Amino acid sequence: MSVSVDAASQVASAQEGPETAAGGTKHVVVFQLGRELYAVSISDVREIVRMQPITPVPSAPDYVEGVVNLRGQVIPVLNLARRLGIPVQPVTPATRIVVVQAGQDTIGMIVDSVVKVAHIAQQDIERPEALAKEGASLAYIVGIARAEDRLITLIDLEQALSFASTPGQAQRNQ
Fold first, then answer.
1. The domain 8-161 belongs to what CATH superfamily?
2. Distance between CA atoms of 8 and 97, rounded to whole angstroms?
3. pTM above 0.85, yes or no
4. pLDDT tens readout for residues 119-140
5. Which residues contact 166 (CB under 8 A, 6 or more apart)?
6. In b/e form, how buried is each residue of 139-151, taking b as 16+ CB within 10 angstroms?
7. Per-residue DSSP letters for 26-76?
8. What are 77-119's pLDDT values in tens digits?
9. Domain residue ranges in the chain
10. Distance, first Cα to last Cα, the chain
């Protein structure tokens, strides 16, 4: 697999190019949730910010941590691990909020750490047929990419962050 690594701070400059280069390479931001790696298209990422105080929203779904004020814009913040049914890790200095554009919505996603900006060759991305048969609960998975000795799960943000769907078995006490 051909994965080249850029600094996460170069997200803005990488966004200027197309999501998929002429050579069939997908540009993604790779992040960690628990022990696993996940990625979203770089064209969906607006910015990556350090963890900051979040104002809770009463009666919100359990995966909604609350809202933050980011340069005058109030943005909802979701705990992506909880949203996807993954055990939630404690906040550390590496914890980040990845601000993304999902459809018409700007949303912050809490991730355990941002690993890298990567260029993944299209031939290294597979859509596992067994997962596709599981139906809507796994509709947020675009594919699985091989990266050295690890696998990276590529996420469809609109599916994963849709307030109407339920990709994971979200539980507040994880």
1. CheA-289, Domain 4 (2.40.50.180)
2. 13
3. no
4. 999 888 887 665 555 554 577 8
5. 137
6. bbbbbebbbeeee
7. EEEEEEEETTEEEEEEGGGEEEEEE----B--TT--TTEEEEEEETTEEEE
8. 999 999 888 899 999 999 999 999 988 889 999 999 999 999 9
9. 8-161
10. 34
